[in-house]
Design a protein that fits this description.
about 240 residues; mainly alpha; 9 helices; about 0% strand
């Protein structure tokens, strides 16, 4: 059981808060990168955005983790153009997740699974680890990931479309492009699309974590709050 999230009511009040939450952010993103690597090695189908990265990796010959970083950075730039607020979590997500995937792949930490049911089991493990990583990443409250920020921006641009339809359009487009470029789509893809929501629900309930109570800091919030802390001013 975790402590009540004080950031629901007021900002971080000292440097120690930033250090602790920064470590939580890094740990969550490390888990997310590791989980993404496991789902690739499961070899039963890829989640939409991983398929997008793997597809472009096949096209360019560049490691899919590096491609993931490049795509993430491009999306962050697009988020800024669309006037979405980004935080240090957005930037860290863009740089870390794909880098971890690339490092693990270069180290060949996990062989490509050839057995179908073993692959399904690995996919489920990867999705569960991803859900745990999502808890730590979101609890750190340093901003949405690049793709989530893009989703929010698209919802604002297309207000007449239901939120679910926007999400399906975004991730469906990523999956289609990845598949057309040669990324593997299969039962694991279906498990990834539906399983992440189920595992996140389980993990968040177990940790008694209410995502709606967390106020995410963007870059401006963080800068202003650190200035107040440095000056010894009381945060509100």
């Amino acid at each position: 059981m975790i402590k009540e999230d004080k950031r629901s009511y007021y900002p971080r009040i000292g440097y120690k808060d930033y250090i602790i939450d920064g470590l939580e952010l890094v740990f969550g993103l490390f888990l997310f990168g590791a989980a993404s690597y496991v789902t690739v090695q499961a070899n039963v189908g890829l989640s939409p955005w991983v398929a997008f990265s793997v597809g472009f990796a096949k096209l360019t010959g560049v490691n899919y983790g590096i491609v993931h970083v490049i795509i993430s950075v491009v999306i962050v730039v697009l988020d800024i153009i669309l006037k979405e607020k980004i935080g240090w979590g957005t930037v860290a997500d863009a740089l870390m997740v794909g880098s971890i995937m690339s490092i693990f792949d270069s180290m060949n930490l996990m062989p490509l699974i050839t057995g179908y049911w073993e692959g399904i089991a690995a996919m489920l493990v990867g999705i569960f680890i991803s859900a745990v990583g999502s808890f730590f990443y979101m609890d750190a409250a340093f901003g949405c990931g690049p793709r989530d920020a893009l989703f929010v921006a698209l919802c604002r641009i297309m207000p007449k479309l239901p939120v679910g339809a926007v999400r399906i359009l975004l991730e469906g487009s990523a999956l289609l492009v990845g598949w057309l470029l040669g990324a593997k789509v299969g039962l694991g893809t279906v498990i990834a699309v539906f399983g992440i929501g189920i595992f996140i629900e389980i993990v968040f309930r177990f940790m008694k974590f209410d995502v709606t109570r967390v106020h995410h800091e963007n870059l401006v919030d963080t800068h202003m709050n650190l200035v107040r802390i440095h000056r010894g001013e009381e945060t509100k």
